[in-house]
Amino acid sequence: MRQILSAPLRSCTRIITTSVRWKSSESFLTTTNSQYIEYLYKKWQNDPKSVPKSWDVYFGKFNAAAATATEKPASLKVSSNLTTVPSNLMPQQINDHNLLTKPRVRLKSEAEIQGEAFLDHTLHVNSLIRAYQTRGHLIADVDPLGIQNPESKKLRGTSDLPPKVVVREHLKGIHESDFDREFPLGIITAIGGDKKSLPLREIIKRLNKVYCGHLGIEYIYIHDPSVLDWLCNKFERPGAWELESNHRIWIWKNIMKAVTFEHFLAKKFGPEKRFGLEGCESFIVSMNQCLESCADHGVETTVIGMAHRGRLNTLVNVCSKPLHQILTQFKPINIEGLGSGDVKYHLGTYTEKSLERSNKKIHTTIMANPSHLEAVDTVVIGRVRAEQVDKGDAKEGIKSIAILVHGDAAYSGQGICYETMHLTDLPDYTTGGVLHIVINNQIGFTTDPRYSRSSPHCTDVGRVTNAPIFHVHADDPDLVSYCSKVACEYRAEFHNDVVLDIVGYRRNGHNEMDEPMLTQPLMYKRIQSHPNVLKIYSDKLLKEGLIDEPFIKEEMEKYEAYCTSEFRKAQEISTMQISDWHDVPWTDFFSKQNAKNPIPHTGISKKDILLICQRISEPPANIKVHSMVYRLLNKRQKLIMSEHIDWSMGECLAFLSLLKDGHHVRLSGEDVERGTFSHRMHIIHDQERDKTWVNMLNNVFPNQALYTVSNSSLSEFGVCGFELGYSTYKHNSLVIWEAQFGDFANSCQVIIDNLLCSGQSKWGRQVGLVILLPHGMEGQGPEHSSARLERFLQLCDDDVGDYEVNENLENASTQQLFYINWIVCNLTTPSNLFHVLRRQILMPFRKPLVIMTPKSLLRHPMVQSTFDEIGPDTHFEALIADTIAKPESVKKVILCAGKIYYELVTERKARNLQDQIAILRVEQLCPFPYHSVSQQIANYPNSKVMWVQEEHMNQGGYHYVRDRIAFALKIPLDNVEYAGRASSSSPATGSKIIFDNETRSLLDAAMKLN
After folding, report:
1. Which end of the chain is more exposed for a tag (fewer CB within 10 A), N or C?
2. Which helix (DSSP H) or strand (DSSP E) does residue 777 occupy?
3. What is the mean pLDDT of residues 925-942?
4. Which InterPro entries does this entry report, sorted A to Z (predicted)?
5. Are 585 and 343 in contact (CB under 8 A)?
6. Do domains 245-578 and 879-1007 have the same CATH topology?
7. Sign of the torsion formed by the C-alpha atoms of 565, 568, 570 and 572
8. What is the pLDDT of residue 267?
């Protein structure tokens, strides 16, 4: 019967028990419920199959109770105390005039009255069960300190009275004598196991234990009935939580190691910040249980993102990182390798762990991240997605899994958590479900939950994706382990997110030097007297006879000896190896890097150029194409005839030539499939059929690599982080994030500042992520004008004069790229776009690349390149020389970058100054092309030098390039003249008149010769 009735009754029961939705019409429901049941009863009397099966069962029991009556009942009267709607009553049925007929009045037999009461009470009991399932978590005893819900301790599996906050009025009308009476258990519960009915007193005891004990579970909001059944069986079925003895001893060992580790660090490094795990050490049990359970379901790699609290403990006791490598970080030490390093609780690792229980091996990664706590979330997910795609596992998501570890205050307070959850089911961003584990200290820095969130739980964000949420008492390691196991099984079964909230406390302050009594005196008085989880769990297992004192002593001494041995080993180490902390598996790639390794030419054969251009210019077959697409393709065909390419063709040529050579290419961002400005059109949609499209870059070459282009969710912070994580998995994949407009990068500044530009310096992490930022003053107002070029240049780690200008040009350029933290370009030609994208993969090392891309130039007739400029033996031009001006007559050399170049050459021509003004384009601003600038300007010995930009003086590239131009030319700074907009706090004016006047003024200044 459970299977037959599951779907209809569950959806209806949800209507029954969510009484708040019916609050406004409660009195109406009270007067109509009896009439509706009488109506059903009459139908049933005529034909039992005419009513839902659930009512057939109820009415059958009612008839059995009334079998001794002398008169056959003609009607059924229901208690006026009933305040819930029957399980298959829908809103439209309530208003049915057939339900409002008055019942016939007659005398009832005793058996009939008892049958009515039984039916009435049975409905109440089922409503009671659903109430526990829905609201039990609000009163659950999950707080070891007893601050939350202090009255909940009375319910811990012993009480036979339900808490009022859970059940409200569901037992109204039930008397003491009914508590020992058996009631049938409906399909909504597994509380009886194999039993179909239980005494009410036993029902309440079991419900109190499951829903109001050390576990608070939220899941009734999930839409899928099969998921509800699965979870119900995992937690309600009697005996489900029981663990074998050897499993519990394994749990004890994990608790012992977690607690002993923290004590050891406190003893050896008392004054040091370490952000210890004290108060939530059962988190280590949870993590190791997750690894064991995931491995049982075929997982080969877990990627972990977490804040600093508990990280050191996790590195050692979960990831099996050698302890001495961590202990060396507690003393002054030199660093070997590229970079300046980071504090120990921000570092990551990549290891292979041997699992103790299953004897399987699993790769574990902790991604390095800064103190911007949750910023790493989407980075982790992107990293996992990349591995799934590489292993052909993207559809199932079995072999790689993301584990995100949150703090309670951060999970509810950081917006990236919400954005991360919403990537769960997006086709090109999903990882088949994420394990979210909350280290719930019930405090954030010095702020308690009453002032840091508005929701009942810190995990309410998990509800947006129908993720089940398990709130677990941190001092109950058995239950923590069981819930961790169920969480992994759920993820494997349903490929959805799941949240495990381990509710503990923080024994010390925010860090070990902090005094928590200043802000939470009452909480910390309780903490001071509260025993740690090792003491609690040891006493429990001693009492049960699972372990004895000699066993405890032996195991603790063994682990302490290991810690001491590793401490001694750490004292002998004088140099930190950054390679010990790499969080990416690029060992071979790193070992082959050298600043003097040449960068190959990036051009391709004319045969490939023609083939690619032809394929991206042909309308796709069997699809109705929009007229704008035809115009774009026709334009490309005309360009091919003249052996020219435009911006979008240069991009396609770069992508497809890399795909041909086996390099995966991924382009992601808002509206990237067609391009914000409708210039790209990589995905062409059928105009008459839904969900029918063609990817223009697929199947151009036999056995080409995967090309993914995906319109993203509207989250710059989340998606940019995702693509950064994606780029960390494989060094030979070209991964690109494009902002819809350049200023959208403002929304993901944490990713750019704290993870991308400084990743190699802090963590030895090399990535080749490309960021495309549409940039240019188009008279469209303050927003969508500037990508804040100045910010990216300010984050470059080169100093003026880092490189001698008399070195060999090619070698110097390679060394500059090798040592710089990232590359910043403002390009003007399709050929340079083509070369710089290919260079990202052909370089023997990886650097992030930031490109200020054009808007109006995407269709500008002057923004074209020839086939010869991308053919064999061609390469990227960091500086493009002037081929028009005659060196001997030039009086002024203008250096510029980006769109302003085309306005300058147009103005120069209009004023007939081609022979007097030379215009050089600095395509690569960082690292600055000292050598090219020096060599080119040497051709104009009698000229003045000016930097011209369309941005305001305090923005754009001026302050970065001015010093470098002066150094390259060995001239005073004042000799580098400026033409551009005056300084401003806003990126651009909103007035068309002001904009035009500003443009005219800067062009006048640029063309002025005296």
Report:
1. C
2. none
3. 93
4. 2-oxogl_dehyd_N, 2oxoglutarate_DH_E1, DH_E1, KGD_C_sf, ODO-1/KGD_C, THDP-binding, Transketolase-like_Pyr-bd
5. no
6. yes
7. negative
8. 92
**Short-list 440, 454, 411, 530, CA closest to 145:** 530
Fold of 245-578: Rossmann fold (3.40.50)
What pLDDT band is residue 162 in, cutting at 50, 70 and 90?
low
- Residue 409 to residue 415: CA distance in whole angstroms: 12
Residue 454 burial (CB count, 10 A): 8
- Decide: helix, strand or coil at residue 538: helix
Residue 13 pLDDT level (bands cut at 50, 70, 90): very low
pLDDT at residue number 104:
45
Burial (CB < 10 A; 0-12, 13-18, 19+), residue 53, is: middle
Closest CA to 352 of 400, 300, 401: 300
Specify the higher pLDDT residue, 336 or 266. Answer: 266
CB of 824 closer than 8 Å to CB of 848: no
Q: At what angle do helices 830-842 and 647-660 cross, to 10 degrees?
A: 20
pLDDT higher than threshold 90 for residue 590: no
Alpha-carbon Rg for the chain, nearest whole angstrom, is 35
Closest listed residue to residue 220, CA positions, set 206, 231, 209? 231
Using alpha carbons, list the distances in angstroms from residue 971 to 581, 734, 934, 963, 965. 44, 40, 11, 10, 8
Specify the CATH number for 879-1007; select among 3.90.1200.10, 3.40.50.11610, 3.40.50.1360, 3.40.1010.20: 3.40.50.11610
Nearest to residue 504, comparing CAs of 453, 436, 437? 437
Q: What pTM was computed for the model?
A: 0.86
Q: Which CATH class is domain 606-870?
A: alpha beta
The domain limits of the chain are 2-212, 245-578, 606-870, 879-1007
